[in-house]
Amino acid sequence: xxxxxxxxxxxxxxxxxxxxxxxxxxxxxxxxxxxxxxxxxxxxxxxxxxxxxxxxxxxxxxxxxxxxxxxxxxxxxxxxxxxxxxxxxxxxxxxxxxxxxxxxxxxxxxxxxxxxxxxxxxxxxxxxxxxxxxxxxxxxxxxxxxxxxxxxxxxxxxxxxxxxxxxxxxxxxxxxxxxxxxxxxxxxxxxxxxxx
Length: 196
Known about the structure:
This protein is mostly helical. The chain is built from nine helices and no strands. It has helices spanning 2-29, 36-43, 48-54, 57-80, 89-103, 105-116, 121-143, 154-168, 178-190. Helix 3 runs parallel beside helix 4 and helix 4 (57-80) packs antiparallel against helix 5 (89-103).
């Protein structure tokens, strides 16, 4: 029993090291500019473990991207479950989304790069996940009673929120204090929320 538990723990640790190494390398060098040998070396693992756990480099990339989308989707579902109408849904989402990508800037860079790559299977997957999440954000916008009236569609507003957060975090060095992070979030929220 202990051997199985030990093997499971080792397996989880190895997968995490591979994901961490690939995330950093893909963000810095791009998917095509990163070899599986580099990933394995940085993760201090045998190169064959990339195929064993992920089915190859493409599967590793998809695991990185899907992990972030899964967290975002769970939060969106939780916010939508809070009731048919409420105030503050969009503000809570902006705080969550900003924090998620502030902590995972490398993943955001990878997603942005993959979306621009029309021939990569992960790009199609990422676009589908983004589209589904944008629909949920648009639903939050429709439900939130604390938003400014707008002639802009909820889907377009959802795109604006995601775009503002994403571009704000492209140069994370400018957000080097809690006050600057709070200020950025508050500014983005002020573009959409009714000021009382």
